[in-house]
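Example 3.2
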Amino acid sequence: MPLDPHAQRLLERLAALNPPSALSLTVAERRSALRHLLAFAGAQPPIGRVEDRTLPGPGGALRVRLYTPINAAASVLPGLIYFHGGGLVAGSLDTHDGICRSLANASGCRVLSVDYRLAPEHPFPAAIEDGCAAVRWIGAHAAELHVDPSRLGVCGDSAGATLAAIVCRQTIAEAHPPLALQMLLCPITDFCAETESRRRYGEGYLLDRATLDHDLKHYLGGGADPADARVSPLRAADIRGLPPAAIHTAEFDPVRDEGRAYAERLEHAGVRALYRCHSGMIHLFYGMELLIPYAATAYRAMGEDIRSLLAGSAPREEKGR
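Structure, written as tokens:
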């Protein structure tokens, strides 16, 4: 399918600004660029309730933002622990506020967005440590948070989806808390990948190789191997026993192929995996719903997949649009 015309117009607008290569940006400039990009999303969708809290983390208190969906059907709801994208060096509770609102409304889950520590101030594995601590604490305090502990999952987008996959594997290995699902939006599953989608869409389609290289350099801090399974979850030796997964990718996204490869690897390991590739879409399309109207359709599909996995009735695979 051709590139969605709304996505095409967005890319043309961004190209007209003649932005510098991500490799030349400071971390502060990288963060500012993502903040301005997601500001294109415009007014945030209405939500039932938003509440800011803190929980204890290994490096100090972690901020968590709770989203109750509009017209919530019950006081106790399934929970999605969400990790925002931004290459593990950028992004915040505020930049991804609209995504969390849309996910909560679409899924009927209470979304708990975690403000994990970012590199380079806190390089690998600080984000993982924070993510695992958040999942453990939320699991132990589910009643206080009005979350059903038997229907608790992890979720993330882009590098936040990478973090979600890694945290999922580590907490499952510890057997606490039991997780019901993992929802991964445009995940980066192999930082060493040389795939067709990386070669074809590695420049000019929003997320590019320069950005991936910039973020990875600051995240690893020169002291970790990008092939480490705690960095590239597709390279994990054993992924058996993980909870069911829904993995959504975008057709014109350099990390598309590794997202599909992770879904296939889960299936081969006996893990139920739903996979959807959104035709005509680019990385982060779901964060710019007012500019790319198809995002609303995608959120309905995400909500359908989450409810299906929670009900234990997910089909083996769903095709794209």
